[in-house]
Every structure is written in structure tokens, then in C-alpha cells.
Design goal:
Length: 153
């Protein structure tokens, strides 16, 4: 039997992938008390990186799609850590990093791709504090990376 959150994901046509293993010397998540701290999840879908530096207005939608994929990958880590997505009490904080040119200033619009999915899936519990930061480069030349702090029951 699936829970409420998994049913919501199914209605959105989203299949949660297996949680990715770390690419270096770190762990994918840490549980401290009732908080789950998730390492940055990159824009990767079906084993392929969603890459490229965002430089202009036309890149916003591609960036939003990459950020949405980061949300899906974060949800995969939540499931791996907690076993049941219905245990999420609150999405506390997201930090989004956008691989962008120096003159690109729409990082918040890009990271909305992640934020919007969390609110759609978790409702009011998905509303969170957030940072959206432009960076010169990301691992594997991905377009977006997002880390999260989750409160759980």
C-alpha cells in the first residue's frame, strides 16, 4: 500500500528513482534528531546529466526542469532515509546552486522548479526557507544542484 505522498507522486506521473550513491567522500544524508540533512542532489535523470551553463532568458525553462529533477532526486533520498515519505513533517530549507554566466540573474526562477514540486507534493509542509545562488561551475557541468533539510516525524 502506498502512502499519501506516493499517491500524489503517482497522480503527477512521477516515478521516484533509486537514491544515487555519493560521487565522492561523503554520505548522501545525515539524520540528526528529527532532521534529515540531504547532500546536494544534481540534475541527473535516468543516468544522464542535465548539463549546461544558464546564460539567458531562454535557459530559464531548461533550468526549471533541471531543478525539478533535483527535487525528484531529493525525494529519492528522503525515501531511502526514512522509508516512508509520509513521515515528512516539514521541508525546512532548500539551497539551490545554479550553473550560470556572470550576467544571469534569474536563479530564483530556476530554483522554483524544485520549490514548486515540493509544495505540489507535500502541500503546506513543502513550503520552505530557501537560497538560490549562481555559481561559476557545478560537478559534471550539471545545470543545477540542490541540498535540503527536512523535519520528520
Amino acid at each position: 500500500m502506498t502512502g499519501t505522498v506516493e499517491a500524489k507522486l503517482a497522480t503527477l506521473g512521477i516515478t521516484i528513482p533509486a537514491a544515487s550513491a555519493p560521487a565522492a567522500n561523503y554520505v548522501p544524508f545525515v539524520i540528526s534528531g528529527n532532521q534529515l540533512w540531504i547532500s546536494g542532489q544534481i540534475s541527473m535523470a535516468n543516468g544522464s546529466f542535465m548539463t549546461g551553463k544558464l546564460a539567458g532568458e531562454g535557459d530559464i525553462e531548461a533550468g526549471r526542469a533541471a531543478a525539478r529533477q533535483c527535487a525528484i532526486n531529493l525525494i529519492a533520498q528522503i525515501k531511502a532515509a526514512l522509508g516512508d515519505l509520509d513521515r515528512v513533517k516539514r521541508v525546512v530549507k532548500l539551497v539551490g546552486f545554479v550553473n550560470s554566466s556572470p550576467d544571469f540573474t534569474d536563479q530564483p526562477k530556476v530554483v522554483n522548479g524544485c520549490s514548486d514540486l515540493f509544495v505540489e507534493v507535500f502541500g503546506d509542509a513543502g513550503r520552505h526557507a530557501r537560497s538560490a545562488v549562481g555559481v561559476a561551475q557545478l560537478p559534471f557541468n550539471v545545470s543545477v544542484e540542490v541540498e535540503a533539510v527536512i523535519e520528520f516525524a
